[in-house]
Design goal:
The complex is a heterodimer of chains A (236) and B (303). The relative contact order of chain A is 0.19. In chain A, helix 5 packs parallel to helix 6. Chain A has a single domain, classed as Rossmann fold (3-Layer(aba) Sandwich), CATH 3.40.50. In chain A, strand 9 and strand 10 form a beta hairpin. In chain A, the strands form 2 sheets. A 6-stranded mixed β-sheet of chain A has the order 6-7-8-3-9-10, with helices on both faces. By secondary structure, chain A is of the alpha/beta class. Chain B has 2 domains: 184 residues, no CATH class; 94 residues, 2-Layer Sandwich (Alpha-Beta Plaits). The N terminus of chain B is likely disordered. Helix content of chain B is 68%, strand content 11%. By secondary structure, chain B is an alpha+beta fold. In chain B, helix 2 crosses helix 9. The chains are: A alpha/beta (236), B alpha+beta (303). At the A-B interface, helix 2 and helix 3 of A face helix 8 of B.
């Protein structure tokens, strides 16, 4: 059962192909699924199955060959390139490699998501501590990334993704570069965020996490959706 | 919805530029130094082209046709002919050299040879007119026309000198034009390279800014502002050095105003020349900074 039946994200018939010389490589083949408001879904599959490509297409880092993606009813693929930043402000992304600026503090790394959107300073001073509190890093707001563990870096990345209150949070292998204990903490935070109402799509190939949390599992293999089960497990 | 959700960010570019210079002291100083040298070389080159053209203008001014008159062609007739020639649109100037004036010139030229001077009187020297044309190419035609005038005994016109001078002038103009283009391209490449090196160091930051929702303008404007800032600061430094050297030349030359030939019969103060040159350098620095940084930041707008 989904928590609510209002479609938040609708991916319809997304196909992505590359040309390798004369040979056409199909990365995504007619991929379709819908996430409803407040839902938490795992997107699982082996490395190279197409999970990261879906994430990149969602934030328009890559363009699909065909298909449509609706975010709260609006086709984000029709948004002109010059306005892509407006799409990105509605989708919070947690990257596997954190993508933090080493020369900026934890606070500044989170604030950057708001600064680029010209958020007024007083609003910024209110939001950043709030999201740092959610991920449990308020006491380390003045630390630089090199002073943090892998798990803490990922929590900064989550805080940054949350800062502009996105319609959906997309996490691309958020536990892929951290130890299992830190991965567990990340999952607790993501679950907490989801319970507060944010829709979450998490791409992962971490079998233990998927099996433990018993969320919706969308399985992709060779660019095709092969199964989509509520409260599924990794191998189903 | 996406297009109206938020207003575009306003950026404090000055703050970012100061922050960049503070954090990247060595690179910023190196950039400004190299760009200053580039603009100075450009100024030197422009001055060389200008000096060459001034020299050509001066030489053109010296090129003339001299028509010598028969003894029975009276001064009144010569002056009438002079007036007619001065009305001709092709003619720049006509100078009358009477028999007496010719003698004076001859005596001045041969003052060290008294024996020669004793045997010469004004009567044996012909009166003449020196004719200069506005276009050097008209000298040949004017020369032919003068030789047909009644009373003209002979016409002196160094055709070979003029022809070779015209050929050299063409080569110098063409070379100057090509070299100006080449040097501007080299300046542009140097600035793009410097800015690209500088921007690449900030590549990760720009990429992250884009991925978390920065607009192209948010990423581009401060980079372009910094490019223009570095470039114009370098241009200003180059202009100050130009004025410093102008001052030194003026001191060496003396208290009177140092003049440089500008066009035919017109000279300008070296300070006016330096000011114009400074304006060109500043305008070049602005546009090179603008174009160079816009070009260098382009790849980061693709994210």
């Amino acid at each position: 059962m989904t928590k609510a039946k209002t479609p938040q994200l609708e991916i319809k018939n997304i196909t992505k192909t590359y040309l390798n010389g004369a040979q056409e490589i199909v990365v995504l083949d007619n991929v379709s699924f819908t996430l409803f408001q407040g839902e938490f879904a795992f997107l699982v599959g082996e490395s190279g199955a197409g999970k990261s490509t879906i994430v990149k297409i969602l934030i328009r880092e890559e363009e699909p060959t065909s298909g449509e993606i609706y975010l709260k009813g609006e086709n984000i693929l029709e948004v002109p390139k010059k306005s892509i930043h407006l799409v990105r402000r509605k989708i919070g992304v947690v990257f596997q490699d954190f993508k933090l600026l080493e020369s900026k503090t934890v606070y500044e790394n989170v604030a950057i998501a708001l600064e680029v959107a010209d958020t007024p300073n007083d609003e910024l001073r209110e939001i950043v501590p709030n999201v740092l509190d959610i991920v449990g890093l308020l006491d380390k707001k003045n630390h630089l990334p090199h002073q943090l563990s892998g798990g803490e870096k990922q929590r900064v990345s989550i805080a940054r993704a949350l800062a502009h209150e996105p319609d959906i949070l997309v996490a691309d292998e958020p536990t892929g570069m951290i130890d299992p204990d830190s991965g567990e903490k990340i999952m607790n935070i993501l679950d907490l965020i989801n319970q507060r109402g944010t829709t979450i799509l998490m791409a992962t190939h971490d079998k233990n996490i998927v099996n433990k949390w018993k969320k919706r599992v969308i399985r992709i293999s060779n660019g095709k959706i092969v199964s989509d089960k509520e409260k599924g497990t990794y191998n189903e | 919805m996406f297009l109206t959700k938020r207003r575009e960010p306003t950026m404090n570019n000055t703050k970012r530029i100061i922050e960049t210079i503070r954090k990247e002291k060595v690179l910023s100083i190196a950039n400004i130094l190299i760009m200053t040298i580039t603009f100075l070389i450009l100024a030197i080159f422009l001055t060389l082209v200008f000096a060459t053209q001034s020299a050509l203008t001066y030489l053109e001014q010296q090129t003339q046709v001299t028509a010598f008159f028969e003894d029975d062609f009276t001064e009144d007739k010569i002056l009438t002919l002079k007036k007619e020639l001065e009305k001709d649109e092709r003619i720049f100037s006509v100078e009358y050299v009477s028999k007496q004036k010719a003698l004076e010139i001859f005596m001045e030229l041969n003052k060290d040879e008294p024996l020669l001077l004793e045997s010469v009187s004004a009567n044996i020297l012909p009166a003449s007119i020196n004719v200069k044309t506005k276009q050097i190419g008209d000298l040949q035609v004017v020369s032919e026309e003068l030789s047909k005038v009644q009373g003209v005994e002979g016409v002196k016109f160094f055709r070979d000198v003029v022809d070779s001078f015209k050929s050299i002038a063409k080569v110098i103009y063409a070379t100057g034009f090509v070299l100006s283009g080449v040097f501007l391209f080299i300046s542009y490449s140097a600035i793009v390279l410097l800015l690209r090196t500088y921007i690449n160091r900030r590549g990760t930051e720009l990429e992250i800014q884009k991925l978390v929702g920065a607009s192209n303008a948010y990423v581009k404007k401060p980079i372009v502002a910094q490019g223009i800032f570095f470039s114009v600061i370098s241009g200003v430094k180059a202009v100050l050095i130009i004025f410093l050297f102008t001052g030194i030349f003026q001191i060496i030359y003396g208290p009177q105003d140092l003049l440089v030939p500008f066009s035919r019969g017109v000279t300008i103060s070296v300070w006016i020349y330096s000011t114009v040159l400074g304006g060109i350098i500043l305008a070049s620095s602005y546009f090179l900074g603008l174009i160079g940084s816009s070009s260098a930041v382009k790849k980061y707008l693709e994210y």
